[in-house]
Amino acid sequence: MMSRLPLAARLEGRRPSPRRLLPVAVLGAALALSACQTQSPIQTDVAYQPADGVPVDLGQVQIRDLVIVSGGKDKAGTLSGAVSNTSNQEARIAFALPQAQPVYTTAAPHSEARLTGDKQLQLPAVPTPAGSTVTLTVQSPTAPTTVVVVPVVAANHYYATLAPTPQPSGTATPSATATP
Questions:
Q1: Among the ranges given (49-58, 95-104, 124-133), the one the predictor scored with the smallest mean pLDDT
Q2: For 73-123, what is each residue's pLDDT tens digit?
Q3: What is the longest distance spanned by two Cα atoms in the chain?
Q4: N or C: which end of the chain has fewer CB within 10 A?
Q5: pTM of the model
Q6: CATH numeric code, 54-165
């Protein structure tokens, strides 16, 4: 026969079994932990440059990790970065500081190479010291001119081998070739 006592009175003194509490605890933990995602973006959805330098896109020519390695303010600077050319033709790329003559390099078709290959690509006088940035114009014949803000780094640590070397006097416009 069923007792006519209210439910609260019938349950008084009874403790819920751990088996019945486990699903409630799991559901509560899942709800609490899912709230963390609303406060933190998914890191793979955030684009970032995992290097010191900056990227430059010139159509089928891409430059990655572009930095200037400099010996100091108003001294020569070496361009460092990786150049990729996915076109069927050799690409000539120009780099210029404001109010300065450009320096040139070429990228072979279907290649990827470092700017600091066989020969350094140097800017004659970098107007800012290491630790700052400088505006650089980058251009190729098949893409619009791109202006980027490039970091200037000191010639130490892993940039030590890229320190600018003295250039012979009397050269009109320095040029180098990026080789695969």
A1: 49-58
A2: 989 999 999 999 999 999 999 999 998 999 999 999 999 999 876 678 899
A3: 113
A4: N
A5: 0.68
A6: 2.60.40
